[in-house]
Amino acid sequence: MERVARTFTESFTSKLEEPVRTHLKNVYACLTMSTVAAAVGAYVHMYTEILSAGLLTVIAAVGLLFALMSTPDNGKNRQMRVGFLLGFAFFSGLGMGPLLDMAVSINPQIIVTAFIGTSVVFASFSIAAMTAQRGQWLYLGGTLMTLLSSLLLLSLANILLGSRLIFQIYLYLGLFLMCGFVLYDTQLIIEKRRSGDKDFVIHSVDLFIDFIGIFRRLVIILSEKENRNQRKKE
């Protein structure tokens, strides 16, 4: 384990310049805060009566994201922009409340397992992107966008057909797609910083969306698996 950590550190240092490394640290600090804010939002829905998921939750999340994206970083408004980011993350977590309620009703352990699995998958693909050759994964952009369009079509088709097979394809293809976006977005952030873009707050949004996308799908997959196991026991 020590050897693996040393190898990663050496590769990280040799392939990424100091400004890029500092930028990535800021990006992942924002991502960590966003994840905590989302967890707080989910907790508020599940265990309090202050707020609950609904249409207003979606509107609030979209509104805060729009506010963040439409407020350029001028060096003086960073705290406000981080506030927009955390507000977006909070309402995103709040919006996941019904899904987490369902998972808890089946087996509370599902949420812990899904979070650990998401963290491991996310960290693995992030490390792969940071230690790969420069721009190696950027070619995935076109493919990922094509798959994203296919995912949208599958979603619409399933609304009309209600097919379990289509739903399974949609679920696993979506998980595969989110993993691909972790590779792509991480390298894109690195290249943006090399091009002079220092806006680590907005860069963390892409990775947060990837993280939430993986977590959401793992919760559904694990819930379905637990449901099948419980039926077999009955």
Helix/strand/pairing category: mainly alpha
Work out the helicity level.
over 70%
Which stretches are poorly predicted, pLDDT < 50 over at least 5 residues? none
Portion of residues in beta strands equals: under 5%
Number of helices: 9
Number of E strands? 0
Please state the CA-atom Rg, rounded to the nearest Å.
19 Å
Shape: globular
Short description:
The protein is mostly helical and 234 residues long. Helices cover 84% and strands 0% of the residues. The chain contains nine helices and no strands.
Account of the protein in words:
The protein has nine helices and no strands. The protein is mainly alpha-helical. The longest helix has 34 residues, at 200-233.
Set down the secondary structure blueprint.
Layout: H1 2-15, H2 18-47, H3 55-69, H4 78-95, H5 97-106, H6 109-131, H7 140-161, H8 164-194, H9 200-233
Helix pairs in contact: 2-4, 2-5, 2-8, 2-9, 3-4, 4-9, 5-9, 6-8, 6-9, 7-8, 8-9
